[in-house]
Design goal:
With 298 residues, this protein is α+β, with helices and mostly antiparallel strands. It has nine helices and 13 strands. The strands form three sheets. A six-stranded antiparallel β-sheet has the order 6-5-7-13-8-11, with no helix packed on it.
């Protein structure tokens, strides 16, 4: 009886793009907070890709509720376009400034400038009150973002993270009058996060570039029927037919046929590689002179 009732429940799956994550700890916090929402069956954050894979009971919760929860933690969130299962590929890419892509760039620059001015003033013999005022301004402007993010995590996820601990240490240093030490902590913390964000951003761009090598559709053979299907509808175990000159849509093994495959887009090999029955092939590589039947493995 319980199985029959469970079979009537309506389940849905979505992918949510998340921005603002700069470390795996951020991903873990988002995953934990989302899993606590009612109606969530599973939630998995893929940190390198900046994506949340979601499965939920559509009768109890919707994607908007999850996006609102992620936003309340201080991160950006939006649902990926899943129309007909095709991947959207923008023909024209707009260049977003670094300070907009990486939220820690501005705090790093501001706190660094204030630290430099304060140290220069100290060497130049300026009054301590002026030097401390510069340090305090740099502390306030540089520590605002991590302090805000730390408070959001504390209020919405009921956890203390490194942002809040950094803010507490800075407040402690200010409380005992060590303004220079406090701004140094702010600057180094922001710089570390900015560098980490830059590295993660490069990794995500590399992943997106690899994904764009994969074609949107594949010729799948199911039984005696061949049909052109979106790659998102291809399952492990399906057989796809790749004609000469076409890109291989999915990772798999050759079931029938013989050809040479240009693997340079993925592996960097300069010469085409011969492929025959049993050989492994990779998504995004280019088939050569022969037709291949490939069983999807991933």
């Amino acid at each position: 009886m319980g199985e029959a009732e469970g079979a009537d429940e309506s389940f849905a799956a979505s992918k949510i793009t998340i921005s603002g994550m700069d470390c795996p700890d951020c991903a873990a916090k988002i995953e934990k907070a989302v899993c606590k929402l009612p109606g969530i069956i599973s939630a998995s954050v893929v940190f390198p890709a900046g994506r949340l894979d979601l499965k939920y009971k559509s009768a109890e919760i919707n994607v908007g509720d999850v996006i609102e929860k992620v936003n309340s933690l201080g991160y950006g969130a939006s649902e990926e376009d899943r129309r007909t299962g095709y991947r959207e590929k923008s023909e024209k890419k707009t260049l977003v400034p670094l300070w907009k892509r990486n939220q820690y760039v501005l705090p790093t620059v501001v706190s660094g400038i204030m630290l430099f001015i304060g140290i220069a003033g100290k060497i130049g013999g300026f009054a301590n009150i002026l030097i401390n005022a510069v340090f305090i301004a740099g502390i306030a402007l540089g520590a605002y973002l991590p302090a805000k993010n730390g408070l959001k995590i504390l209020v919405n996820a009921h956890e203390m993270d490194i942002n809040l601990l950094m803010a507490a240490s800075v407040l402690g240093a200010v409380g005992i009058g060590e303004f220079e030490e406090a701004i140094v902590v702010v600057f180094l913390f922001s710089l570390g996060n900015a560098l980490e964000g830059y590295t993660v951003d490069k990794t995500r761009n590399s992943i997106r570039a690899l994904m764009e090598l994969v074609p949107n559709v594949a010729l799948a053979r199911r039984g005696e029927i061949e049909a052109l299907l979106p790659v998102d509808e291809i399952k492990v175990g399906d057989v796809v037919v790749v004609r000469p000159g076409e890109k291989i849509p999915m990772d798999g093994r050759v079931l029938a046929g013989y050809s040479s495959v240009n693997q340079a887009p993925v592996t960097g090999e300069s010469l085409p590689v011969a492929k025959e029955v049993g050989d492994e092939v990779f998504a995004g590589t280019i088939n050569g002179h022969g037709s291949l039947e490939i069983q999807v493995s991933k």
